[in-house]
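Operator note (shift B, R.M.): manual run for RNA-binding protein requested after the automated queue skipped it. Running by hand, logging everything below so the morning shift can see what happened. Input copied straight from the record, untouched. If output looks odd, do not overwrite the archive copy; leave it for review.
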Amino acid sequence: MSLVAGTMAELRVNREKSPFGYFLGEWDAEEGPEVLLPYGETEGARYEVGVDVEVFLFHDDKGRLTATRKRPLLTLGELGRLQMADFHPRFGCFLEIGISRQLLLPVKELGLRHDIWPKPGDELHVIMKHDKEGRMLARLARIEDLQPLVFRAPSSWHHEEKDAWVTDAFRDGYFVLVEGGVLGFGALGYIPNAGASRPLRIGEKVRGRVTQVRKDGRVTLSMRPAKEKGRLEDADRLLAFLRERPGGAMPYSDESPADVIQRRFEMSKSAFKRAVGKLMKEGLVTQEGSWTKLTETGTAAGGEAASGEGDSRRD
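Run finished. Output pasted below as returned.
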């Protein structure tokens, strides 16, 4: 048996040295390396020379292999979800693992897109590994790491709202791990850009509506409300926006590019068209080329007209 950082080990108390603590060694070796169990890491226990103690091994802030009686949230080779405590732009994310030492997720693991980097309080799915010197490090869990641990989402999830954690980001959307409750790690999911109400971060916890349960057990989610509810809310937003514009007009219409609509209103082009279509049907706006304008009715009417309250003209 060898002393390896990131692992649990059963070691024998060889000697006690005040004011430091207990020096432990391998119980089946007459001679060999020793590791210090500081008094502050004993959880208040006292030990006699010759007894065996189960400890977790890690490197302290001076690079020395050290023992603790505290049980970590993660051990070497395991995958888990850890909360980010702090961030250093040069080193990376420092993650809480339940002991006095934090686990480093190197900045190179985060990629070049700073907009998706996590913030303190986010929870990241990582695997504990070693660096070249045998010290504990974390790496982000990938889909192939999660796949053996997740379950197939049941068809009953369709239309339900679920919590999920962002595990990776791509040009067209985000991979997430969907909360599984008592079923452990949960199910794999995906939020396309059109279903994200805003840009997301790796490790961020979000809530979304299951729009599809695929045959392979993965799910597609949307953070946006169902179309009918969303259409009402979007119509209200656009109407309020127009009423604040000079002349009640805006240089956006069905002809506007999707990326422009997304950037300006944080809604998809299809959602924009549904909302404008509702307002046009109710006689509140008109479109002329690339412009959308309030009608006299839209200028005079209150907010109830867009939401349909007190108006018999419902779809």
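Quick read of the result: The first strand starts at residue 8 and ends at 17. The two ends are 73 Å apart (CA to CA).
Leaving this for review. - R.M.
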